[in-house]
Design goal:
The complex is a heterodimer.
Chain A (H helix, E strand, L loop, with lengths): L2 E7 L3 H12 L4 E4 L11 E5 L2 E4 L10 H6 L9 E4 L2 E4 L5 E4 L3 H11 L1 H21 L15 H16 L2 H12 L2 H6 L5 H8 L15 H9 L2 E2 L2 E2 L2 E4 L4 H13 L3 E3 L4 E7 L2 E7 L4 E9 L3 H6 L9 H9 L6 E8 L18 E3 L4 H12 L8 E5 L14 E8 L12 H18 L7 E7 L1 H8 L35 E3 L13 H13 L14
Parallel strand pairs in A: 1-2, 1-14, 2-11, 6-16, 14-20
Antiparallel strand pairs in A: 3-4, 5-10, 6-7, 8-9, 12-13, 13-14, 15-18, 15-19, 17-18
Chain B lengths: L16 H7 L6 E3 L2 E3 L6 H10 L1 E5 L4 E6 L3 H8 L11 E8 L5 E11 L2 E6 L4 H7 L6 E4 L5 E6 L3 H7 L13 E6 L2 E6 L8 E6 L4 H12 L4 E3 L2 H10 L43 H10 L3 E8 L9 E3 L5 E11 L4 E9 L8 E10 L2 E12 L18
Parallel strand pairs in B: 3-13
Antiparallel strand pairs in B: 1-2, 3-9, 4-7, 4-8, 5-6, 6-7, 9-12, 10-11, 11-12, 14-17, 14-19, 15-16, 15-18, 16-17, 18-19
Helix pairs in contact in B: 2-7
Classes of the chains: A alpha/beta, B alpha+beta.
Bound molecules: flavin-adenine dinucleotide.
């Protein structure tokens, strides 16, 4: 049987990226995917005839442009089209629109608070400062602060220098920023409830924390540190759906000589003499390679497809204790037309951006209370978009796809597993909420795909349906991601590596974890590096 | 309460728009915050020479205007601004800057002491957030009145003659930085002898409902005195000649500047005269005292550059080609017949008389040329006609 240089388990966008850079460096690479399709949470599937849904992730900003360019993804058909703006529809029938044009944005904010409209300048500045600090580290391997290896020391010094470069005032702010709740942070800038609520949303997406929980400021940053064509913090649609990203990566990989097999779930990583040597598939096949890379989250990697006896007990404990709580769900809806939102009136461009219904910090926190109580939020936070108002390729003419990301949705309902009835009741809660703001919405529905953490885990393999392969809290970031001492993509046994969103710099369609892992693997194999360095934005 | 469609009005027409529109021969409008604003009406050079030779009108309405009243108005402003506010007596105007707690400039502007204890602060950018933060503990009322006051800058040697012709009694005796109030069309016209041109000139302030009336009377009176509108481009030329800074170009507002080291203190902009360290307490004082002690990072200079190629965006170098700064504003001055610029240089460079090289790139028919033009630091403004300060003001 053919022996590969590397086997990558899981064709999520990070597995694809990792395999592509390994192939680019000249390695023979086999990429194994359990599903009949690739992409993991970066996927677009035709579930309802004629309609493509972005089933999981739905918008793109984090995808590192260095990788986009180096893997030639444009050549393989990828195009990211920025959309601007967002709107919060209020319970009282009003709305708050957030615009990309500074003057228009200010005028709309003035309607809610004359002062906030000015404070927003300061807010943007401070968020941008944090972005500028964090972005250079995205394409770097985190140093191990306990190590005396020259490389770690060099990197630590680099981090330290960058940190001190921020200047006294920003240093203080940074420490506070990383530990504060988003609600507290926003209180330092804004007075209007709806403005605060509008910005607070990105502090909770994908995390099992409330707007008042410490650490949620960082989650906001995680959503602000991306870009579209150099416009920092901008988000865009992948033309054709998010699956277009995975498809372009797969085409690049195949062109570079890599091999992709779908319907090829890995049952076991084979370890011999303390070294990972191959994989056994669910269908009984075995494949061998010098290097085994897992794109799965640590719970799946270490507790499901590795034999616990091959691992140190304290390591198994770490995997068991890894925080990967599910908090999100999603509805993908096929529509017969564009729903009307009377609050917005006719021809309002705000319908092309993110739409939200949470108009106060208190409502957001109440939504989290439901999650803690073991149920889905009765008045949930949604991040809702109609990509087909921008992208003409996903649905038949005149029809639309609506993507509704929902929080909070617990991994279990009142401590027991989800049932189909629970799932449908959850879906109904969300549809009813939307209908409160759009009277003709329900009449337009052709199909609804409802995804609770149960479906997300079953289909994508994200444990508990956690969208980021593990929560983005300080104890699980940088040199602590996924676990202290294992942040440099190397697994607990020789020849075994991790490349998924559970590694630095974390979740989202970013591709940096996959690329960073490839660089480490090539270093261990003493092969020339094929992974681009991060671009400097000074 | 603003209407829901408020954001849709991408730009408001100014209260003078009906008069400006037909005069805007180029039909090109730009935006200045909430308003349509023209960079050029007819031709930059014609407009520039109108300001220097006859008189011209610039629509100043979009300027941010914040009213400060209440028992503590003086104490509050004395705390907000770096200068002594004491010296801005009722009926007077003072140029001023204000800083954040790090002593870095937020904006510059003019403080109008309209009536005893009743002030208006004019600035380029909205300031409400910092102004309210700074008001903690003061009994003051702070209100944005940007849209409630229509304003014109009326600048040039014949401006006083035109205002007299309009019937503004005793206007020639209004001193620089003085204010006079006149009854006009059933409302009040406020005239201040202020401006951004370094020339004889006035600013006219009126209720928007009387704006068109004011415009018509002004143009009627000015017909034989060469009156015309001037746009943002000509304004930029006259203010550089006059040695006046522009926020956003010569310095950045600290509340919106991502890289903290890119902000500037008043000392680093040559505005020492606007900082009164003898005041016991004002925003940024602590930091400015320390800067005084330890030295500033930058020097702001006016440069006289050899040759006739404007030094826009140029690096400023030592004779050995080490870069020590860059140009922030530059132009060929038609009035001084000089090639002039403002630059920010790393301290200690920038002493009067010091010589540098300006690295200038210019293009002629798609061919680019680079010159290293010798230049020197000067201590005077490029253009400063005596009529600017003369009282009574001359007729031309
Ligand atoms: C509902 C939802 C919405 C999201 N929205 C956004 C968004 O709008 N923007 C954004 O940037 N991010 C979003 N995210 C996050 C982002 O999609 C993920 O963080 C990212 O796609 C994860 O990529 P990955 O390659 O690390 O892992 P995954 O995509 O999880 O890939 C893992 C792959 O491994 C496969 N696999 C699992 N077990 C096995 C096995 N035993 N053998 C072989 N293969 C196996 C899986 O099928 C999967 O293909 C969202 C996620 C979800 C779930």
């Amino acid at each position: 049987m053919k022996k590969y240089d590397a086997i990558v388990i899981g064709a999520g966008h990070n597995g694809l990226t990792n395999a592509a850079f390994l192939a680019k460096a000249g390695l023979s690479v086999l990429l194994l995917e359990r599903n009949p399709y690739i992409g993991g949470a970066t996927v677009s599937r035709e579930i309802y005839p004629g309609f493509k849904y972005s089933n999981c992730s739905y918008v793109c900003s984090l995808l590192r442009p260095e990788i986009y360019r180096d893997l030639n993804l444009a050549k393989y058909g990828l195009q990211i089209v920025p959309y601007g703006g967002s709107v919060t529809l209020c319970e009282n029938g009003d709305f708050f629109g957030n615009f990309t044009d500074a003057d228009v944005a200010r005028r709309e904010m003035q309607r809610h608070s004359e002062r906030d409209a000015v404070a927003a300048v300061r807010f943007d500045r401070d968020i941008m400062r944090q972005c500028k600090f964090i972005r250079p580290f995205l394409m770097r391997t985190p140093p191990d602060p306990t190590s005396f290896k020259p490389r770690d020391i060099r990197e630590l010094i680099h981090y330290g220098k960058e940190y001190y470069k921020l200047g006294e005032e920003v240093i203080y702010d940074t420490i506070r920023f990383y530990t504060m709740s988003i609600a507290e942070y926003l209180d330092e800038y804004f007075e209007s409830g709806v403005i605060k609520a509008a910005f607070a949303g990105s502090g909770i997406i994908g995390s099992a924390l409330g707007v008042m929980s410490p650490g949620t400021s960082y989650v906001l940053l995680h959503h602000a540190m991306g870009e579209v064509d150099g416009s920092m913090g901008a988000w865009g649609f992948a033309r054709g759906g998010m699956g277009a990203i995975a498809d372009a990566m797969a085409a690049a990989l195949v062109d570079l000589g890599g091999e992709i097999r779908t319907d090829a779930g890995v049952e076991q990583i084979i370890v011999r003499n303390g070294r990972a040597v191959g994989v056994a598939l669910e269908n009984g096949d075995e494949h061998y390679a010098q290097v085994i890379v897992s794109n799965l989250d640590p719970k799946r990697t270490f507790l499901k497809i590795m034999d616990e006896k091959d691992l140190d007990p304290s390591f198994v404990e770490k995997a068991k204790n890894f925080k990967i709580r599910g908090s999100s769900g999603k509805l993908n809806i096929a529509l017969d037309g564009v729903p009307e939102f009377p609050a917005l009136g006719k021809d309002n461009e705000l319908i092309r951006g993110d739409m939200h219904f949470m108009d106060s910090i208190e409502r957001l926190e109440r939504a989290y209370d439901d999650w803690k109580n073991g149920t889905w939020s009765k008045d949930p936070y949604v991040d809702m978009l109609i990509p087909t108002l921008t992208d003409p390729t996903m649905t038949p003419e005149g029809k639309h796809f609506m993507s509704v990301f929902v929080q909070y949705v617990p991994p279990k309902v009142n401590g027991r597993d989800w049932t189909d009835a629970d799932r449908d009741a959850f879906g109904q809660t969300v549809l009813d909420q939307i209908a409160n703001y759009s009277p003709n919405f329900k009449d337009l529905i052709l199909d609804v795909e409802i995804r609770t953490p149960r479906e997300i885990e079953a289909e994508v393999g994200l444990t508990e349906g956690n969208i980021f392969q593990g929560e983005l809290t300080m104890d699980q970031l940088l040199f602590n991601r996924p676990f202290p001492g294992y942040a440099q993509y190397r697994g607990p046994v020789k020849g075994m590596y991790m490349c998924g969103s559970a590694t630095h710099p974390g979740g989202g369609v970013m591709a940096a974890p996959g690329a960073n892992a490839a660089r480490e693997i090539l270093m261990d194999l003493k092969r020339p590096n094929s992974v681009p360095e991060g671009w400097v934005d000074d | 309460m603003r209407s829901r469609g408020h954001f849709r009005k991408n730009v408001y027409p100014s209260p003078f728009h009906s008069r400006l529109e037909p005069l805007n021969k180029l039909k090109e409008w730009g935006r200045w915050h909430d308003y349509l604003s023209a960079d050029t009406y007819i031709c930059d050079s014609k407009e520039y020479f109108a300001v220097r030779n006859t008189c011209a009108v610039f629509d100043l309405t979009p300027m941010e205007k914040t009213r400060v009243t209440g028992p503590d108005a003086f104490a509050y402003l004395d705390r907000l601004l770096t200068r002594s506010v004491e010296k801005v007596k009722p009926g007077r105007v003072g140029y001023c800057v204000w800083c954040d707690d790090n002593g870095r400039l937020l904006d510059d502007g003019t403080l109008f002491h309209l009536h005893e204890g009743d002030y208006r602060l004019c600035s380029l950018h909205p300031q409400l957030d910092w102004m309210l933060t700074s008001a903690i503990g003061f009994d003051v009322d702070i209100r944005v009145e940007t849209h409630e006051v229509a304003a014109l800058a009326f600048q040039g040697p014949t401006s006083c003659a035109v205002l007299r012709k309009m019937g503004l009694d005793d206007i020639e005796n209004l001193k620089p930085f003085g204010i006079k109030h006149y009854a006009f069309a059933g409302t009040e016209l406020m005239v201040s002898r202020t401006g951004y041109s370094g020339d004889l000139g006035y600013e006219l302030w009126i209720d928007p409902s009387a704006a068109e009336d004011l415009w018509d009377r002004l143009f009627e009176a000015g017909e034989l005195h060469g009156i015309m509108p001037f746009g943002g481009n000509a304004l930029d030329l006259v203010r550089i000649e006059a040695g006046l800074l522009l926020c956003g170009k010569d310095f950045l507002p600290a509340d919106g500047t991502v890289r903290p080291e890119r902000t500037r203190s008043p000392f680093e902009l040559g505005l020492d005269w606007l900082v009164d360290l003898s005041k016991p307490c004002f925003n940024g004082r602590q930091a400015l005292l320390e800067e005084k002690k330890n030295g500033s990072r930058y020097n702001f200079v006016k440069l006289d550059i050899d040759g006739n190629k404007p030094a826009n965006d140029s690096f400023i170098m030592l004779q050995n080609k080490t870069t020590v700064g860059h140009v922030t504003s530059a132009m060929w001055s038609p009035s001084a017949k000089a090639n002039i610029a403002f630059a920010s240089l790393e301290a200690p460079y920038g002493q009067v008389g010091e010589e540098f090289l300006a690295e200038i790139y210019y293009q002629r028919e798609l061919k680019w040329t680079r010159v290293l033009a010798p230049c020197r630091v000067i201590d005077h403004n490029f253009f400063e006609p005596p009529r600017r300060r003369m009282t009574p003001a001359p007729d031309f």
